[in-house]
């Protein structure tokens, strides 16, 4: 590899010249030279080839145009794991990790509850993170997008959990579902009129963002379907838009009047997740 990195500017010089945060520059360079970031920092004398320098320039132009960094390099970290991503799927957000943490804590307290569903799986980051950290858990992962399911399947293969995740091309849940103990759903929840405020909209799929006029169309539809689909005990976790926390909470209470329902905030103290527990 060292012999291939020949250009007029060293990697150290490239880092200085890129008008982006240092960590972003490292990510781009590591992607281009197919080396860990630690290797780049340890070899400041290495040079990019002409082709690699041109590739870097192209990526920087796309970045300056607003294209998300994960799409440029094709990966995003979530819950300590690396996931392949492309414009067919939503980029995993750290805010969603609260869902995985909450589910794993509940599963630890309920060792006989080991069947779950990830509704609207996208990249598969939730289902894969769960089964990777709970070795006897089996998940069904659904999505309305065949392209998204292809990405999720590749990620399951990458993390060697494909034998414990079943994938289904479904509108929320399959027609004849088997009862489950755990439901995780990070569905589209941006009200249609707010989509213009989402800076990643030109690149991320609108199918994964648009929650209809109220932002709660799909969440409401799912909640109506779930009562006949659950074992007891059971846990339902729903991610929601920060301004829709109270409304999502009321929907949950309406559909599950006898359940324990609560609203949880993310690391930024924004309403993020509704928790519904059936005991």
Plain-language structure description:
This protein has 279 residues and is an alpha/beta fold. The chain has 2 domains: 2-65, Orthogonal Bundle (Helicase, Ruva Protein, domain 3), CATH 1.10.8.10; 78-278, Vaccinia Virus protein VP39 (Rossmann fold), CATH 3.40.50.150. The protein has helices at residues 11-17, 22-33, 37-42, 50-64, 69-73, 97-109, 125-133, 146-158, 217-225, 245-255; strands at residues 75-78, 81-84, 115-119, 138-143, 165-169, 180-185, 230-239, 260-265, 271-278. Strands 5-4-3-6-7-9-8 form a 7-stranded mixed beta sheet, sandwiched between helices. The N and C termini lie far apart (58 Å). Mean pLDDT is 91; it is low at 1-7.
How does the SSE layout of this entry go?
Elements: H1 11-17, H2 22-33, H3 37-42, H4 50-64, H5 69-73, E1 75-78, E2 81-84, H6 97-109, E3 115-119, H7 125-133, E4 138-143, H8 146-158, E5 165-169, E6 180-185, H9 217-225, E7 230-239, H10 245-255, E8 260-265, E9 271-278
Helix pairs in contact: 1-2, 2-4, 6-7, 9-10
Number of strands: 9
Approximate shape = globular
How many individual helices? 10
Quote the average pLDDT.
Answer: 91
Rg from Cα = 21 Å
The largest β sheet comes out as: 7 strands, mixed
What is the CA-CA span between the terminal residues? 58 Å
| CATH fold category name of the largest domain | Rossmann fold
As residue ranges, the low-confidence spans are 1-7
Order of strands side by side in the largest beta sheet? Answer: 5-4-3-6-7-9-8
Question: Which percent band covers the strand fraction?
Answer: 15-25%
Instruction: Spell the H/E element sequence.
Output: HHHHHEEHEHEHEEHEHEE
CATH class of the largest domain: Alpha Beta
**What is the name of the CATH superfamily of the largest domain?**
Vaccinia Virus protein VP39
Please give the CATH architecture of the largest domain: 3-Layer(aba) Sandwich
Domain count: the total is 2
Helical fraction: 25-40%
Structural class: alpha/beta
């Amino acid at each position: 590899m060292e012999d291939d990195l020949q250009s007029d500017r060293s990697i150290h010089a490239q880092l200085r010249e890129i008008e982006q945060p240092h960590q972003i520059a490292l990510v781009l360079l590591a992607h281009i030279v197919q080396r860990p970031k630690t290797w780049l920092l340890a070899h400041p004398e290495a040079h990019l080839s002409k082709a690699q320098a041109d590739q870097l320039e192209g990526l920087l132009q796309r970045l300056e145009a607003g294209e998300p960094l994960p799409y440029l390099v094709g990966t995003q970290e979530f819950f300590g794991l690396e996931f392949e991503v492309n414009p067919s799927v939503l980029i995993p957000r750290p805010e969603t990790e609260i869902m995985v943490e909450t589910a794993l804590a509940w599963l630890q307290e309920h060792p006989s509850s080991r069947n779950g569903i990830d509704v609207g799986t996208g990249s598969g980051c939730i289902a894969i993170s769960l089964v990777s950290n709970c070795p006897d858990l089996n998940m069904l992962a659904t999505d309305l997008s065949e392209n998204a399911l292809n990405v999720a399947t590749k990620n399951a293969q990458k993390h060697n959990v494909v034998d414990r995740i079943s994938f289904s091309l479904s509108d929320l849940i399959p027609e004849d579902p088997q009862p489950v103990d755990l439901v995780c759903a990070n569905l589209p929840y941006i009200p249609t009129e707010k989509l213009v405020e989402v800076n990643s909209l030109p690149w991320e799929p609108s199918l994964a963002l648009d929650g209809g006029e109220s932002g709660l169309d799909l969440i409401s539809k799912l909640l109506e379907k779930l009562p006949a689909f659950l074992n007891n005990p059971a846990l339902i976790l729903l991610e929601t838009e920060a301004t829709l926390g109270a409304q999502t909470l009321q929907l949950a209470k309406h559909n599950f009047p006898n359940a324990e329902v609560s609203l949880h905030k993310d690391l930024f103290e924004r309403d993020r997740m509704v928790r519904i527990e059936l005991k």
